[in-house]
Amino acid sequence: DEGLVLDYYVDADGKLTHWREAVPHYTHVPGVPFGSILVPTVETARIGLLVDSLSPQRKPLLIVGASGCAKTATLSAKLRSLGESYASCVLSLSALTTAAEMRR
Fold first, then answer.
1. InterPro entries per the record (predicted)?
2. Which of 54, 45, 62, 46 is nearest to 82 (CA)?
3. What are phi and psi of 68, to 5 degrees?
4. Which run of H or E residues covers position 18?
5. How far apart are CA 36 and CA 60, in angstroms?
6. What is the pLDDT of residue 1?
7. Which of 76, 66, 67, 24 is nearest to 45 (CA)?
8. C-alpha distance across the termini of the chain, in Å
9. What is the total count of domains within the chain?
10. pTM for this model (two decimals)
């Protein structure tokens, strides 16, 4: 099963690579609070690569996706790792969010 074109990315060597190859190994650390655990997946690898590629260029980034696909958790972890040289503004939006609410 080769998948779709969206299942691949171009790696640092210019080679077409399946996203599962970019998922780091997870090792559970006992005692870590459950809410702090982030198990790497294909989705977290995709988001991570986007952030890693665009943040040095200081480009804005809008991440969208289905509820529960780890957008917020992945970005929060990435932002913590960037240090204080980066500022962020986190907005949680839904289908019910209005323009007036965005301006508040």
1. DHC, P-loop_NTPase
2. 54
3. 85, 10
4. strand 16-18
5. 26
6. 60
7. 24
8. 48
9. 1
10. 0.70
